[in-house]
Amino acid sequence: MERLQKVMAHAGVASRRKCEEIILEGRVKVNGQTITELGAKVNQTDLVEVDNIPIYREEPRYLLLYKPKNYISAVADDKNRPVVTDLIRGIDERIYPIGRLDFDTTGLLLLTNDGDFANLMMHPKFQVEKIYIAKVQNIPTRASLNQLEKGVIIDGKKTSKARAKLLSSNEKNQTAILELSIREGWNHQVKKMFDAIGHPVMKLKRERFSFLDLKGLEAGMWRELTAFEVDKLRKMAQGSSLDI
């Protein structure tokens, strides 16, 4: 469920702050009941009316994008850099990315206009596995990879257990390709984890998000998630919340 003023703003009624004023003025009804206090929440099936006129509720959309390098994971950027929504054509709904990938990081990114779904995917209790492929400086030892797997300290916190695998190495250039699987999503986490063991990241790609992958897509391409995929992600997230 989402806050009423957020749903109204998302439907284009007014800014969120102005929508709060409209609610307090008693001009909003939910399923026929006048709402005059902030804090009310609604879901997709609720009928919301402003001045007795039903607001337009967008159909929920769920997209999987293969994010290219040098795109911001946002809908706008104050430095006028390209944003991921620039890559989406033919979608009228106002979608936004779930979480983020760094400007120079490529790979799998989900986008939606469904706030409930986005919150589920980003909630700390949803321990979704995310698999990254990284090119790093120098060739790590098994002992270094063990450090990653046991957890390293970044920003004063210890990361959870991970899985790390050396895929290939280049003795001449002193670089290595590694696979890292984590179940968290802290800011710049993967890069900071590799920094913590002395192997700065040169290139980074998110290969998988839970059971989703990039099969059939090239950088800049996207597809809609199937109803089955969305439902499976929801059930996984809700199950994680119940288990903890």
From TrEMBL:
Broad EC category: isomerase
Protein EC: 5.4.99.-
Superkingdom: Bacteria
Record keywords: Isomerase, RNA-binding
RNA-binding S4 domain boundaries: 2-65
SUPFAM superfamilies xrefs: Alpha-L RNA-binding motif, Pseudouridine synthase
Entry's family note: Belongs to the pseudouridine synthase RsuA family.
Full protein name: Pseudouridine synthase
